[in-house]
Amino acid sequence: MTTVLEPPGWKDELTEELDETWHSPPGLREWISTVDHKRIGMRYFYLGMVFFIIGGIQSLLIRMQLAGPDLDLLSPESYNQLFTMHGITMMFLFAMPVLSGFGNYFVPLMIGARDMAFPRLNAFGFWVLLGAGIFMYSSFAMGQAPNDGWFNYLPLAGAEYTPGVNIDFYTLGLVFLGVSSTGGAINFIVTILKLRAPGMTLNRIPIFVWGELAMALQIVFALPALSLAAVLLTLERKFGFHFFDKTAGGDPLLWQHLFWIFGHPEVYIVALPGFGIASAIIPTWCRRPMVGYTYIVIGELAVALVGFGVWVHHMFAVGLSNITLSFISLASFMVVIPSGIQVFAWLATLVSGRPKLSSAMWFVLGFIMIFVIGGVTGPMLGAVVLNQALTDSYFVVAHLHYVLVGSAVFPIFGAVYHWGPKMTGRILDERLGKISFWLMFVGFNLAFFPQHLLGVFGMPRRIYTYEEGLGWDAYNLASTVGAFVLAVGILVTIVNWYRSKRKGPVAGNNPWNGETLEWYTSSPPPHYNFVTVPTIRSREPMWDQPELAGGAQAPSEGGRSLTGGHVTLSTSLLDARPQAIVHMPHASPWPFYFSVALTVLFFMILVELWYVAVLAGVASVMTMVGWYWPRHETQET
Amino acid sequence: MAAGTHEMTIAETGMPGEVLPEHGVGPRSFAWWGMVWLIATEATLFALLLASYFYLRFRSPHWPPEHIEAPELMLPLIMTAILWSSSIPVHIAEKGIEKGHQGKLRWGLALGWLLGAIFFVMTVAVEWPESLHHFTPRTNAYGSMFYTVTGFHLSHVLVGLSVSAFTQVRAWQGAFDEKKHVSVQNFAMYWHFVDIVWLFVLLSIYVSPHF
Amino acid sequence: MRTIRQPFVGALGANRRPRPVSATSARAAELMAGRRGTLRAISTRPGRSVLATAPALLLLAACSDDSPSVLRPRSEAAERVEGLWWLTFWTSVFVCVLVAAFIVQAVRRGRAAGAEEGIDKRPVPWGPRFIVIAGLVVSGAVLAGTFAVSLRALNALAGPSGDTALTIEVIGRNWWWEVRYPNGAVTANEIHIPVGQPVEVKLSTADVIHSFWVPQLNVKQDQVPGIDNRISLLADEPGRYRGQCAEFCGLQHAHMSMYVEAQPPAEFDQWLARQAAPAAVPTSSTASTGRDIFLRSSCAGCHAVRGTTAAGTLGPDLTHLASRETIGAGTLSMQRGPLTEFVRNAQDAKPGATMPLTELTPEELSAVVDYLMGLE
Questions:
Q1: ipTM (interface predicted TM)
Q2: Helical H runs in A383-424?
């Protein structure tokens, strides 16, 4: 510990200066123009949770329809739209946004930066998400929501068999969403590579940040497959091109390949941030550093990489050669290993630490159990012959919910309890937290475990009803009951969030004695995140660097106040040596205007009003010009 | 202040005795990395598109399908020469501004733009209309792929021409100098990328059907 | 192109040949009387009875024995699947119990530590070793072993076709199954096969992707435009096995099931000969009237009745409709009441099906149904 050389009151002086530099007057213009990563992160979180509730209601309707045989609560068309939108909503409008939301909020904090690398791109990503969500959901208003499943196979999804605009909402909506995800991913990669606080070498990067990096790298390389498939399908449906049409030299399997080349990495895109959240919660609540940090990091990166090689296992029943099947099966078995390694690292930390059983911790324990159950049915589906028996049945529905709800929903709820106080400044009620957890855990297992059996007993997926006497009735009923219990559990946390935001105990900087830098600053952090950007000397800086406890590392101890405007540091790739001072853009309304123009453009393409579409396109270009037009503060470019 | 230089090129960080530059170029600049990753995602898009082309091709008994000739090579080769030659002035422009040479920057970008525009016009006004006589995107998968692949590439050329125009406006306003020119670097990187993609398009779409 | 055939080696190594079925066995008699197969409580295969019995009883006791279940295999191929299932099931249970034990231990440590503060920074020397051994070595070995077993199963099921007694075509259509036999018999939604003889099914589709899945007889195979897929059906014993389309194909995907009826060879031959024969001539005057109405109205435009002028190909061949047990691809049973309702308005039972409302008066409807009920 170094002796502070600054005169007393230096912190207050700096705080005042920074408050003034970073102050932005409130108002509507400011609301649409903010580029503060924390506010954008919160918006992703709230919007994502709204879609979670909507997707949840869709699933309850589905479960009500399937509670018994031959029910007619929903027509087949409604059912098909509901299950399709449930999948799309949960994957694209809930999981990715909420996990990006936590990433947006916490990555800059955890690496000691004042914002993301591209703050306006960040804002743009949110506005596009909002636009794309509105775009896709307007399909319900037209009664023509996508209805051919979230993977939308051809020829069914072609113009001949689904002539309505349902699938155009799907293709255009996904291309639109892809813009948001890709921009966000590039932002995360550059931020994590170049904006880390000095001294945060690669092996001091928090595991959550590694998880976001792995996710972002996957998005960059996987999303083009989906965007390409969607563009090709749009060309085929709207303009009569031929890509998937066997009679004209196309091939329906091309769609399947392109979709799953995206679709399989997509599940890791969802899972890896979830793993990262668990890796943020475990050390804090076990009150010890993570055991096997290196293994976990390598595990995350290995999953991200190998995850690109297994997509064909979604196509095992299609009629491929033995050689192909064997290779992909082998790869699918292999990809289990890096995930398993992470699980064992967490378990080792849990049993060698002294876990405090808070709500956050319970959600992590629940995540591990549920994810492992999902993880063991994975190899079952990796075995080709067993896959060919069980694919497209409820067994897969069970498997996918165990791995996705396990690796995304439970960690998200853990994050709500663990990081909520940092975001709102108030601690959530622990009793309600535990009630929520147990309702969710029991409800989830009751809802989905029987579905494994349903698959084994021959129930295909995506059927709007089933006849009685097949032995499926009791399990379906149990599943429906479980879904409602799960829903109640979710509701408890939602209520808890709002109550605690207003009346919960004040959190302070570091209520849990956490080890990473988000706990270095106040709750919630000021606009500029930190009074001084600290020099990092450990993987658990809050535990090993006592000078951080006061909320500001003194300049003589390595703290950098960076007061010359909206500035942050650019540091080197491996060792995080300071390289430059970077001026960040101030608030700008252009990302908002651009996304409005794009939303109009996509709607016009959907309804084929080409002249207006061209105008919207021109408007989009103009808003881009407005965005990039240099201003004195965007001195970088 | 002379045109092309900027105030505050170094600043204090707040840590005693430490000053750092305020502009990065190349890997020290965020924007540079942003372009790198944008190129990565676009490269993946093209790779998948060409893979789709070969996938459909190798599942077809005849390629090109009957009644369609393999593409003629003369015109595409000329266009290739024009497109690739545009990278030279762009490169000169980039190297020029690294040394603060405004003239090389402005004229290099302008010439590069001109050559790129010629490529664009040749495609849209000569090459495509010629092919459309024989097959359209709606004829079959071969036609769809031909126009989609070349069209994707052409749209990237169009974006490049737009970015070049914007950059040239700023260059003529004196926005760049030897310390600050990452936008020029980014444009050059993007333009060379577009040229490299063209190599693969040329080989796949134009040359390989002859074999 | 892909063929899945029946294996000749059991999943756990026991060599087996398809057992000939004695027509006098009590079980066969039950089945021939049309009842569903009885619960197979104890497996007769040595070594597997222990593995399969207890959970089998548990799982099966909880449901009726009418499930088209992967765990009630009636063929070699399905037995392989079942074997692989139990192997992976028990491995999975073991892993989950192990992980749960760790979690319980963590909870206990948490409760014991109570409110002690302070961070424990001591390294965990067994940590890296544990992670590598559990996560890489042991997991890797288990996964490799499972993969090896699964590879053997794959090769057994998916080699080139062995001897085939019969090749039939099953064409998936929205939302029913067209079944064609080499002797000219054409039927729908019901496939008869001779017990103990391998039948190769050529799978194709007339429209979108469907998937042919009869869980008790084999794995599923998709019907994809342009791909020549085949699957083998070789039933061990007589019985009626339910199958269902297993690839989402639109509005009535839920109502696209079919039955595979395995019959003793002699019975099968009789059935096949009858199915190839032209339609029965109506024996009553109402049935005659019904036939005339059928032929002159839109019915004949979509449906074929061989031996008459009705030669439509949009809907199922109705030549021997009354010999089938279900209508509407497993949606309703083949009896006068449901048939009448279905003919009157198929949209009630299958909203969105291609068959429209028929505009027949009640008398006409009754006559047509009389005719159809006579098409044995």
A1: 0.95
A2: 384-390, 394-404, 410-424
